[in-house]
Amino acid sequence: MKSEKSVVRLILILLAVLAAAGVLYSVLSDRFAPTTITPVTDAAETVNPAELPDAVDFQMEDAEGNVLRLSDFIGEKPVIVNFWASWCPPCKAELPDFDEACQTYGDEIQFLMVNLTDGAKETKATAQALIDSEGFTFPVFFDTMGQAASGYELYSIPVTLAISAEGKVLSRQTGALTHDALDSLIRSLLNF
What we know:
Layout: H1 2-31, E1 59-61, E2 67-69, E3 79-84, H2 89-105, E4 110-115, H3 124-134, E5 140-142, H4 147-151, E6 159-163, E7 169-174, H5 179-191
Parallel strand pairs: 3-4, 4-5
Antiparallel strand pairs: 1-2, 3-6, 6-7
């Protein structure tokens, strides 16, 4: 009799845990669901720019410590923002392609390579050491206050944003971009 009560009690506890897990999954999946953004690969005629989300503005520092905002780069030409860190292998894998793209398309697109500089795991010095050792020439900015990370809800990196000259987010890519994927993103952004 005692063992039957223990089994019933164990089953009830298991059911309660499963129910709680289901509720927690439902709540968290809504909270952490990725924002759906129209990919820039659609033709401009099929996208209503008024329906696209505005880019979230944030502060960042350049290598000299000057404080800039994303909005400082909106208006003249499209912007590609890449969020990265020197300790992130997928980030490091795509940096050469971004450097090449910046050299090729830098007159037509503003590239912002935003390092997520938390001051502990990632510092300006560790980021700059990687840039210097690899000879990258793209413009590097530092999210020292965490505004970009929180504003774009960055839970994993790298993340790449394509932003129109009018400040509309056209696409958000999570994960390392291949050379071909970056090239396709750039061509689509130039044709938007």
